[in-house]
Specification:
Blueprint (H helix, E strand, L loop, with lengths): L2 E7 L5 H9 L3 E5 L6 E8 L4 E6 L11 H13 L3 E7 L3 H14 L3 E6 L1 H6 L2 E3 L1 H8 L3 E3 L8 H13 L13 H16 L9 H9 L3 H10 L1 H21 L4 H21 E3 L8 H9 L4 H42 L4 H18 L2 H17 L1 H15 L4 H12 L5 H7 L6 H10 L8 H12 L4 H25 L21 H35 L5 H16 L3 H9 L8 H24 L1 H13 L6 H12 L3 H12 L10 H7 L5 H13 L4 H11 L2 H28 L3
Parallel strand pairs: 1-4, 1-5, 5-6, 6-8
Antiparallel strand pairs: 2-3, 3-4, 7-9
This protein binds guanosine-5'-diphosphate (GDP) and magnesium ion (MG).
Length: 737
């Protein structure tokens, strides 16, 4: 049987001209079955082979808006030609590539005929054919169809494409988080019910539903009305969401992203204009400056610095309100609840744990607002575009940048949405390498740990230190990515194109919604995961409590002190429990009693389940300078990094000499004999690199498709972090720090 080659292209791209030079006299004209669209067929013969050639109607796209589009599409899907020759007008490349992108998305075997090269040349446009071919992942043959130049080469290339045994992977464009998420949901549903999948690829059907393609929707309704209705419901939701946040329609957004994809192909040196172009659009004009090799990085750095300023300066006041509020609740509980386990649970377990996490909400809201602004306006895509070059060196991709930023690459994100953001990476290897390294970013839960330690030990230049910490996270992530990409996830990077969507003025409403969506995720985590872990840790730090014999020992010590106290001093002590004006004797007695209380509390903590664990771990952790209290906090941090500070607070307040002189935790650390700047530095690096929190591990496993990767990241990261911490502590100690 002769293989079939279909010719597709925009009207006036030169299809008929090519068809004529290929088939000569061996052609006939008819109509497509059922419609009055002209169908031309012919035969191409050379020394080696024979092809049936079909000239499809000229179309700009494959959406069912016109009869021509439906006919062309049905033909491609139902007749499955061996190759589709896509004819482009080289003098109008950008617009013509729109159809090409859709052919690649449909997954047909494409050979690109770059026609009208003479016209392009006359207009001073030169095209880097090899680069275009590399970026599209299809052969590109320059030609002048009217004179038959390039026809042999096109047929040779087409023959090669027809002979390929492997099906080329379908092009998957990123359509922005909202659409991509809906696409994933739709595709799952379509695959699950094998809905129309005998005829069309699942992802393509999903796209057509989002594009409101009437023909596909009608087909769908006929095939399975129930599934079709569910699909439409998802699209409805997406559509309303986009209307609210971006004030646009899904179809428009899809077209934007396709053009963005094309634009970035063209911008990578594929097209050079030898005449001055007067057709620079506003977006292009802005991009000229913003992605300039020299000005670009400086603008990006200034923007990120501006974001820091914005966040830290303006969030100070509301953060103060939150802290005040939780302080007030804690104080209220302290004075109004009866002594006992319940009080301890409410204060140490619930208020300290959850309050510590929620106290951070205003700062994160400001951060999320700033990041939404950068993202919705389209600027973040430019930052990614510029970093693409750097990231490739480390075996990653510019799209990884977004995942890193979402995870806290600038400050205060979360690895969970960061892991989700890797879905935009269509290449498996780069995606896996990104998945495994995003947890190194300084997420919103690690920030308080750093803030605490920096305030305690490096208070002279906090800003510089925070910057240094951020930098360390990026360097660590990139080096580890490089390590993975040259060992366990080795392999060439797929040729990839970064998208440059056009700039938009973000709507305030959209920003507020996006900010709230992100903040709510965080709050929900505090209300569920952190609350339960906090209670669990509290229990582990409270039970089993001291054995009776030891308790008696402390009781006796207290009795001894009181026995040695004159009666009037002791009664004064009782009536003025919260006493401001104790006599000097009473004061010293009170101190002595509190010292016994503190010793008892410390003994009880050491005796508790968590305390024993911490002490057991000390055997190893002392190499990095961590004491048993820190170990408890770090173990808790695996459940959620938010726990680290909360637990350290509890653990250190339990051993304190005078709990009524409430010192801030950072002061306590600074005064503690176990601590010095070197320990803090070692701990900062450990917290930065050790195992992702439990939720992140679950997400990594799910996205990587196997529990093995989740387990790997727990073990690898912890070992790496421990090695770094030991190295820092040992070298620092040897140098006398
Ligand atoms: P179709 O609509 O895609 O079938 O395009 P046609 O083959 O009918 O071509 C449209 C016009 O472009 C005709 O006037 C052709 O003569 C002209 N044309 C086709 N190929 C070339 C080419 O390579 N160079 C130039 N200069 N003109 C061409
Ligand atoms: Mg024609």
């Amino acid at each position: 049987m002769t293989a079939t080659i279909a010719l597709a292209g925009n009207p006036n791209a030169g299809k008929t001209s090519l068809f004529n030079v290929l088939t000569g006299a061996r052609q006939h004209v008819g109509n497509y079955p059922g419609v009055t669209v002209e169908k031309k067929e012919g035969i191409y013969i050379d020394q080696e082979r024979k092809f049936r050639i079909v000239d499809l109607p000229g179309t700009y796209s494959l959406t069912a808006y016109s009869m021509e589009e439906v006919v062309a599409r049905d033909y491609l899907v139902n007749e499955e030609p061996a190759v589709v020759i896509d004819i482009l007008d080289a003098s109008n490349l950008e617009r013509n590539l729109y159809l090409t992108v859709q052919l690649l998305e449909l997954g047909v075997r494409v050979c690109v005929a770059l026609n009208m090269m003479d016209v392009a040349k006359n207009r001073g446009i030169s095209i880097n054919v090899d680069k275009l071919s590399m970026l599209l992942g299809a052969p590109v043959i320059p030609m002048v169809a009217r004179s038959g130049i390039g026809k042999k080469e096109v047929m040779v290339a087409s023959g090669e494409v027809a002979d390929l045994s492997a099906v080329r992977p379908k092009l998957e464009i990123t359509y922005g988080e909202d659409i991509d998420q809906a696409l994933a949901e739709l595709t799952d549903l379509i695959k699950e019910h094998r809905f129309l999948t005998d005829t069309y690829p699942a992802l393509w059907i999903a796209l057509k539903y989002i594009e409101e393609d009437k023909q596909i929707k009608d087909l769908g309704k006929g095939a399975d009305p129930e599934v079709s209705a569910r699909l439409e419901k998802i699209v409805d939701r997406l559509s309303r969401h986009l209307q609210k946040t971006l004030n646009t329609y899904p179809e428009a957004l899809i077209a934007d992203h396709r053009y963005g994809y094309i634009k970035s192909i063209i911008r990578q040196g594929v097209v050079t204009y030898h005449h001055k172009q007067d057709r620079l659009y506003i977006s292009d004009k802005i991009d000229k400056v913003v992605t300039n090799r020299f000005a670009g990085p400086m603008i990006a750095a200034a923007t990120i610095f501006g974001l820091y300023q914005f966040v830290f300066v303006y969030s100070e006041v509301p953060v103060g309100w939150f802290e005040g509020f939780f302080g007030w609740i804690g104080g209220f509980a302290e004075t109004h609840l009866p002594e006992g386990l319940l009080k301890s649970l409410i204060i140490s377990g619930i208020i300290d744990g959850v309050g510590g996490v929620l106290g951070f909400v205003p700062l994160l809201m400001f951060m999320f607002f700033g990041i939404s602004l950068l993202e919705d306006s389209g600027y973040l895509a430019r930052v990614a575009f510029m970093l693409d070059r750097v990231f490739r060196i480390f075996g990653l991709h510019g799209s990884s940048v977004m995942a890193f930023i979402v995870s806290g690459g600038i400050a205060g994100g979360c690895a969970v949405p960061g892991v989700m953001a890797t879905r935009t990476l269509k290449s498996k290897r780069e995606r896996l390498a990104t998945l495994l390294t995003v947890p190194f970013m300084n997420c919103g839960a690690k920030l308080p740990v750093f803030a605490l330690l920096v305030a305690a030990f490096f208070s002279e230049n906090q800003a510089v230190f925070m910057f240094f910490i951020t930098l360390a996270a990026w360097v660590g992530a990139l080096l580890v990515a490089k390590l993975f990409r040259s060992t366990i996830i080795r392999g060439a990077s797929a040729p990839f194109v970064m998208e440059l969507p056009p700039y938009r003025v973000p709507t305030f409403r959209g920003l507020v919604i996006h900010t709230w969506e992100r903040t709510w995720q965080y709050i929900r985590k505090a209300g569920t995961v952190v609350l339960s872990i906090s209670i669990l840790l509290w229990a582990m730090m409270t039970f089993p409590g001291l054995p009776k014999s030891e308790e008696h020992g402390f009781d006796n010590a207290r009795k001894k002190i009181l026995a040695a106290t004159p009666l009037n001093t002791a009664s004064g002590l009782d009536s003025q429990k919260m006493g401001d004006d104790l006599s000097p004797q009473a004061e010293s007695v009170r101190k002595a009693l509190l010292r016994v209380d503190a010793q008892e509390a410390e003994a009880a903590l050491k005796h508790s389940v968590a305390g024993r664990m911490g002490i057991a771990l000390e055997k190893v952790s002392h190499w990095a300078g961590f004491d048993w209290r820190t170990n408890i906090a770090l173990v808790g941090g695996f459940a959620a990094k938010e726990i680290v500070v909360a637990t350290m607070g509890t653990a250190y307040s339990l051993g304190e000499v005078d709990p009524e002189e409430t010192m801030g935790l950072s002061k306590k650390l600074a005064n503690s004999p176990n601590w010095r700047p070197l320990v803090a530095l070692s701990l900062i690096f450990f917290v930065m690199f050790y195992t992702p929190c439990f939720v992140a591990v679950v997400c990594i496993s799910r996205e990587a498709g196997s529990w093995k990767w989740g387990a790997f990241s727990m073990i690898f990261n912890t070992l790496l972090a421990f090695m770094l911490a030991v190295l820092i502590f040992q070298i620092g100690s040897a140098l006398g720090f």
